[in-house]
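Action item from last meeting closed. Structure (125 res):
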């Protein structure tokens, strides 16, 4: 299996976000199976012609999202993201609900804010 990542220097998306999004998509689709060992930060940076800090930023974001996990000197691997992603989403939803309640928004206004945010994040109507 060969990792397929490309960076478009003309894209409005920053390079780290392009790397992050492509790795996340491939991990979530199964194109990169759970346990797949990713290249080192330096190796990926050299392969893509990027600064190591750019790739490190993408890896940190992916690790924070539960998509990958670093096992010390053993390397960085695709994680079993399903359960971790669901737990994080539930925690974010709980924090949001508590916050809008403290702000005094009713359920309708809170739902409308969520729907607008989802439209912005996912695109479309």
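Sequence:
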């Amino acid at each position: 299996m060969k990792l397929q990542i490309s960076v478009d220097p003309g894209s409005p998306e920053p390079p780290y976000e392009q790397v992050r999004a492509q790795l996340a998509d491939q991990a979530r689709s199964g194109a990169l199976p759970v346990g797949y060992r990713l290249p080192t930060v330096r190796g990926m940076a050299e392969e893509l012609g990027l600064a190591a800090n750019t790739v490190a930023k993408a890896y940190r974001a992916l690790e924070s999202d539960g998509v990958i996990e670093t096992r010390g000197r053993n390397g960085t691997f695709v994680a079993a993201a399903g359960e971790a992603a669901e737990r994080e989403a539930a925690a974010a939803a709980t924090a949001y609900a508590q916050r809008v309640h403290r702000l005094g928004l009713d359920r309708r206004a809170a739902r409308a804010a969520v729907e607008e945010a989802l439209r912005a994040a996912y695109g479309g109507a």
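Note appended to the action item: The longest strand covers residues 68-70.
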